[in-house]
Write a structure and sequence with these properties.
Layout: H1 5-19, H2 29-36, H3 40-52, E1 56-59, E2 65-68, H4 77-85, H5 99-121, H6 124-142
Helix pairs in contact: 1-3, 1-4, 1-6, 2-3, 4-5
């Protein structure tokens, strides 16, 4: 069970913003979109949702853009996913009320719980650190 394209784009954008957080920089939508190959308008919608969710703040003006509202270590991936996809998944109870479907429903609930726990324990800082290690190992590999 992966992420929707919307959530992937949102998280990738937040990793970009996490990378410049310590310098107090802002990034513009066009800059992030160009780096990551994300359509500008689609990215703008996601960043607006993240701003409304108080994960980002926007700075107006010619040198404006977006920046994280809190340090990357304080933003969990679960918060981002919930902001972009909504709280929890709405499973409709099926008319198929057999024991087999009930067992399958319990398994799905356990999967959802484990996923939510992992996302809650993972911060943007964790993802940024992993990205930096990956980039570092790729640089060393090509030398």
């Amino acid at each position: 069970m992966g992420f929707s394209a919307k959530t992937e784009y949102g998280i990738v954008s937040l990793i970009e913003l996490a990378a410049v957080y310590d310098q107090g920089q802002v990034l513009q939508v066009a800059e992030i979109a160009q780096r990551q190959g994300i359509p500008d308008r689609y990215l703008e919608q996601m960043l607006t949702s993240l701003r409304r969710g108080k994960i980002l703040r926007s700075i107006r003006g010619p040198k404006g853009g977006y920046q994280l509202a809190r340090p990357p270590a304080e933003v969990s991936v679960a918060q981002v996913v919930n902001c972009l996809e909504g709280e929890g998944s709405s499973r409709s109870s099926s008319a198929r009320a057999t024991a087999e479907f009930e067992v399958l429903g319990h398994l799905a609930a356990r999967l959802d719980g484990a996923r939510q726990q992992l996302l809650g324990e993972t911060s943007l800082q964790d993802l940024l650190d992993q990205r930096n290690r990956l980039e570092q190992s790729q640089v060393m590999y090509f030398i």
